[in-house]
Design a protein that fits this description.
Layout: H1 4-27, H2 34-110, E1 116-124, E2 132-135, E3 148-151, E4 154-162, E5 167-171, E6 179-183, E7 189-196, E8 199-206, E9 216-219, E10 231-239, E11 246-253, E12 262-266
Antiparallel strand pairs: 1-2, 1-12, 2-5, 3-4, 3-12, 4-5, 6-7, 6-9, 7-8, 8-11, 9-10, 10-11
Helix pairs in contact: 1-2
């Protein structure tokens, strides 16, 4: 059995050969008898028509093939350009957001008298028992354990472990954390400690003190770690029991600990 390609090639060669014979006969028509020329024309006409149709068909297919190849190539180029455009747009957005954050840090740094170091958050404790983060600054940058860490929104925590180029920070939402604080409006004092993922509790507030939901809680500066007047959070709940000396005050921090990227460490 012959393949389709061989059959097509054979037909094309046959048509070309017939067409050449027709051209030879018609070129001699001036010297050939009219009857022979007419017979040749009658015989070759259908073949010539078929040859022209097949030739046109093949040329159309060939041209369409090249058009499809060029279209596919152009499509690949456009897709590559689109991917590059999306990548550049994402990079631009990230740069814009980083610039906005760094401007806030710069303005915040100007408002602090103490010397500070800006660090990047590079990790966090995966366990559910401790709330800590790791920053990319350490002993070589002047950091030691017990330094306050903050962002423009408020207090983040304090350094607890320090290596040459890295430090671990205990967040104020950790149950082991403590910050001497006071309610800004009533000046009621207490100790801030962690209670849940995004919430703290202000303990040892006297039951007789007037505390309202929405009041701001700030650092008192009496613990020797956090400078006085730093924002911690706002009062989000109050529990006054029938008995006891103290009331429990729920505090929601101003800092979103799930979105920390850069922090400021206050050096002493």
């Amino acid at each position: 059995m012959f393949s389709k390609r061989i059959v097509i090639v054979t037909i094309v060669i046959f048509l070309i050969a017939v067409n050449l014979i027709f051209l030879v006969l018609t070129s001699r028509s001036t010297s050939s008898p009219k009857g022979l020329s007419g017979i040749a024309l009658s015989f070759m006409g259908p073949f010539q028509k078929t040859f022209v149709s097949v030739s046109t068909f093949i040329v159309d297919i060939w041209e369409n093939y090249f058009i499809l190849v060029l279209t596919a190539k152009e499509n690949r180029q456009l897709k590559a350009a689109l991917r590059l455009s999306v990548k550049e747009k994402n990079e631009y957005v990230e740069l814009k957001l980083a610039n906005h954050r760094l401007r806030k840090f710069l303005n915040f740094q100007k408002s602090i008298i103490e010397k500070v170091v800006v660090a990047e958050v590079i990790g966090k404790d995966p366990s559910a028992w401790f709330k800590t983060i790791v920053i990319d600054k350490g002993q070589k940058d002047g950091i030691c354990p017990g330094l306050s860490v903050m962002v423009p929104e408020g207090i983040v925590g304090k350094t607890v472990e320090v290596a040459s180029g890295y430090s671990k920070v205990l967040l104020i939402i950790d149950r082991n954390s403590s910050v001497d604080a006071l309610v800004q409006q009533s000046r009621s004092r207490g100790i801030i400690s962690g209670e849940s993922t995004q919430r703290c509790i202000l303990q040892y507030v006297l039951r007789k003190d007037i505390v309202k939901v929405g009041d701001m809680v700030i650092s008192s500066g009496l613990d020797g770690i956090y400078p006085k007047g730093l924002r911690i959070g706002y009062v989000s709940g109050i529990i006054r029991r029938n008995a006891g000396v103290f009331q429990e005050v729920g505090v929601t921090p101003f800092v979103d600990f799930g979105k920390l990227e850069e922090v400021v460490v206050v050096l002493k």
